[in-house]
Amino acid sequence: MDRQHRDHRLLIVTGKGGVGKTLLAAALARISARQGRRTVLVTMDSRDDQHPLLGVPLRYRPQPSGLGFDVSRVDAFEAVAEYARRTMPMGLLYEGVFRSRAFRDFAAAAPGFEALMCLGKLFNLATQTDYRQVVFDAPATGHLRELLEVPAATQRAVRVGPLNHNARKIEDLLLDPDRTRVLVATLPEEMPVREAMETVALCRDHWRMGVGPVLVNRLVTGTVSADELSRLTALEADGALGPAARRAVAVARSRQALAMAQAAALAPLATIGLPMLRVPRLPGAGVGSEGLLDEVARHLEPGL
Amino acid sequence: MSRLDLPALVRSSRVIVCCGSGGVGKTTSAAALGVLAARLGRKAQVMTIDPARRLAQAMGLEALDDQPRRVDLPAPGELWAMMLDTQRAFDRLVARHAPDAKVRDAIYANAYYQQLSRSLAGSRELVAMERVLEATLEGDQDLLIVDTAPSQHALDFLDAPGRLVSLLDGSMTGWLLRPYGLAARAQFDWFRQSSALTLKFFERLAGVQVLADLSDFLLAFSSMFDGFRERSHRVQALMREPSTAFLLVCAPEAASLSQVDRFAERLSGDGFGVAGVLVNRVHPGPEGIDATVAGAEQLSLSDDDVGLLAAAGEAAYSDMPLPDRLAELWREDVLLRRADLAALAPLRTRDLPLHTVPRWMRDLHSMADLQAFADALAAQP
Hints:
The structure holds two protein chains of two kinds.
Chain A: H1 3-6, E1 10-15, H2 21-34, E2 39-44, E3 63-64, E4 70-74, H3 76-87, H4 95-99, H5 101-109, H6 113-127, E5 133-137, H7 141-157, H8 162-175, E6 180-186, H9 190-206, E7 210-211, E8 214-219, H10 226-237, H11 243-266, E9 276-280, H12 290-300
Parallel strand pairs in A: 1-5, 1-6, 2-4, 2-5, 6-7, 6-8, 8-9
Antiparallel strand pairs in A: 3-4
Chain B: H1 6-12, E1 15-19, H2 26-39, E2 43-48, H3 54-58, E3 69-70, E4 78-83, H4 86-97, H5 101-109, H6 111-119, H7 123-138, E5 143-147, H8 156-169, H9 171-177, H10 190-206, H11 208-222, H12 225-239, E6 244-250, H13 254-269, E7 274-282, H14 303-312, H15 322-349, E8 354-358, H16 367-378
Parallel strand pairs in B: 1-5, 1-6, 2-4, 2-5, 6-7, 7-8
Antiparallel strand pairs in B: 3-4
Helix pairs in contact in B: 1-2, 2-16, 4-7, 5-11, 7-8, 7-12, 8-12, 10-11
């Protein structure tokens, strides 16, 4: 990692749903921790009591993952309660309020309010604790777009007071390329690539945020050349191969087709001028384990 | 574990709601189900509330909008598609229930309404459900296939309308409907006291203007509230009808699968009919090979085969002899298949009908691709 990267307090990992953000974010947290930084991996909006990949308890208060970093789930209600306790005179008076139905309905219906509170918690973790890096397993692009609007929208709607002040500080952190970096994850497939490019345009070109390498997940490579494949096809057509060899040729052919389709899908990314970090498709990538995280980390680390 | 018979499902249902997390092929699955239904002679309409406009591409249409468009498809039935425009649908909802043009325009002009109808998590879901009801009552389709928005909380579309209605109906409304400020004269009953505290809290946090906007909005909205609530209850009833089926769409990945369990539990617990689980993107593995058998990952070639394959290899391309490379590819292929099947194992122990569709080698974005997908939906295992 270059010096600049090391100093980022907040890494935002985003991308289309299903691209493996959660795994990549966990691997980044693992790398950060191994490099000696106190690190917390944060998910948002999760109602899970367990991290879906790591299988460790997921709470609002950061919990150790056993992998060198902590994990936490940012939850709007907890964030509001904490915020109030910190900032309101007689904060405890409001304790019962947060649990009330009226409050929940109101908070749920006030546009952007929950999102602002969640961003506030991220801000707090990144700047007012002894964590040196917060890895944010962020929502997919559409939701991220709304999330990034929230601090500015809040400042427009609320001209004075603590909410305005805090919204500005949150925005300052998010837009500061020295403190925050966005990492966009994608699969080597057309729609995720398109969405990744939209996200880069949103974060780098619209918001002028610091945007890091694009993380390409589940990449396959062809290990048989086109010439070899055509010779194998000829052998097959001659009836020269046994059943096992014929099946093996079919596997190689479909792998080759996939590798070519993936390369074609990735081609547009070359135009955005960001380096790519490639993670191969790993069997068992759905099942979290230390070994898997380290395997992913091994592919990411040299490029960070 | 039983098999999910999708042709029977599209024949017998009037509404199919596809739910699941993002990136599992939900939108494409909904479109392919529509193709399957049209093939079986039904007049199907697919409705997406996904703002990413993927459905149009999948159906070979230039664009989709708020109005149903007929998809060009040679089939005994018909396929129609539409996309939800949240702002317009919300405006229409207001127009439908507003007692007069004055109230309607007051609502349109309200700052809170403008925010609410655009960005409130749940407003999309609310109008989607409203549109589902409208289509069911007024449309002439036999089957409506609803593609829900991808979200962490993929069941928000069920909760959100209720949340909004309970906001409008609840104690907050009572407080805010009085001229703002009088509300602080709290009465002593606990619930009201908590409402007053909530207001005070928000006032400190958000400023008086926000509350004043909200108060204006609710005041204007209150005149149409009965109509609004009545529609919301009808949606809830429609969703629980026996001819409404919920289809859980997922991929063999930890995050997606862990949701399916909870969705199924939550849906059936709340009296919704869960038809089953559609698992997309299952790695096919080598043809005719049972990847679960121990040792299946070892490619056993005859000596003759090894000789022929080795001779076909190019030393200039790779240091590794071709038979070894093929064996390595084979191993990976079997292990990927095995991993996917293992990931699905917990699902199989549940009493949920299941149908799996293989991973495609490419993104699906033409009608021919959708036809192939529909074939896979109808295929017998």
